[in-house]
UniProtKB/TrEMBL annotation:
<dbReference type="InterPro" id="IPR002680">
    <property type="entry name" value="AOX"/>
</dbReference>
<dbReference type="GO" id="GO:0009916">
    <property type="term" value="F:alternative oxidase activity"/>
</dbReference>
<keyword id="KW-0812">Transmembrane</keyword>
<dbReference type="GO" id="GO:0016020">
    <property type="term" value="C:membrane"/>
</dbReference>
<feature type="transmembrane region" description="Helical">
    <location>
        <begin position="135"/>
        <end position="154"/>
    </location>
</feature>
<keyword id="KW-0408">Iron</keyword>
<dbReference type="InterPro" id="IPR038659">
    <property type="entry name" value="AOX_sf"/>
</dbReference>
<dbReference type="Pfam" id="PF01786">
    <property type="entry name" value="AOX"/>
</dbReference>
<keyword id="KW-0249">Electron transport</keyword>
<keyword id="KW-0479">Metal-binding</keyword>
<keyword id="KW-0813">Transport</keyword>
<keyword id="KW-0560">Oxidoreductase</keyword>
<keyword id="KW-0472">Membrane</keyword>
<keyword id="KW-1133">Transmembrane helix</keyword>
<dbReference type="GO" id="GO:0046872">
    <property type="term" value="F:metal ion binding"/>
</dbReference>
<protein>
    <submittedName>
        <fullName>Demethoxyubiquinone hydroxylase (CLK1/Coq7/Cat5 family)</fullName>
    </submittedName>
</protein>
<keyword id="KW-0679">Respiratory chain</keyword>
């Protein structure tokens, strides 16, 4: 059976904030307690802190952004499987496809974060260890992908909750990093990806924007916890 689904428009992505709004967003994050992280989340955060240090850095953030794309990739894969499974139920298939488009857009946003971090690493002459910045991210991503995939298969809301915890962690890490490094206010945004991501007055504002993006992803996942829309097991 062949079904026709109108392709949903790709989401615009997290809003781009001006300088004052970015500063307010940072203050809001720093004034908000972190989520109560689950054991699974802690199993990812702890090794990262041990290998890269508890303090933020461009190299640590690059590693985190490699991992950040993983749940969206898992959901996209599950979505295509579900579209095929629910081919005879066009309304449900359409909702699933809309979720695929959302996951793809969020994944692309995380990819821009990674490209920006890699650019800052290169511009600042930082070196990346093959073991810590190639092998370790692959293993952690492998673990996170399969956890996200299995959770989404049996209990979608748990997969969304885990991603919300990861995004909450990233949001606080970025905003804390800016607060702890006031010199970033005087480091101009190189604007390498300005056409795609926007140009900011400083690297501090660029990092604040990324931190706010993570908040948007977190809030979206928390909304999906309340209403997963569809579940493969149902």
């Amino acid at each position: 059976m062949t079904i026709t689904i109108d392709r949903p428009e790709a989401p615009a992505g997290p809003p781009k904030l001006d300088r004052d709004a970015l500063r307010r967003a940072q203050a809001e994050t720093l004034d908000t307690p972190r989520m109560a992280y689950s054991l699974l989340a802690k199993m990812m955060f702890k090794p990262v802190d041990l290998m890269y240090g508890k303090q933020g850095s461009f190299t640590k953030f690059a590693m985190l952004e490699v991992i950040a794309r993983v749940p969206y990739q898992a959901w996209e894969r599950m979505g295509y499987w579900a579209v095929h499974r629910y081919a005879g139920r066009s309304a449900l298939a359409k909702r699933v496809f809309e979720r695929i488009v959302e996951a793809r857009a969020d994944q692309d946003n995380e990819q821009w974060h990674l490209l920006i971090m890699q650019d800052l690493i290169q511009r600042n002459g930082m070196r990346q260890n093959w073991l810590l910045h190639k092998v370790a991210p692959w293993f952690i991503s492998f673990f996170y992908y399969h956890v996200s995939w299995v959770l989404f298969l049996v209990r979608p809301e748990a997969s969304y909750r885990l991603n919300a915890e990861f995004e909450d962690h990233a949001e606080h890490e970025y905003m804390t990093f800016v607060a702890d490094n006031p010199d970033l206010e005087f480091m101009p945004d190189p604007g390498t990806y300005a056409d795609e991501y926007g140009r900011y007055r400083s690297v501090a504002d660029l990092m604040r924007q990324i931190g706010h993006d993570e908040r948007v992803h977190k809030l979206a996942s928390l909304e999906n916890v309340k209403d997963p829309h569809w579940a493969p097991s149902r």
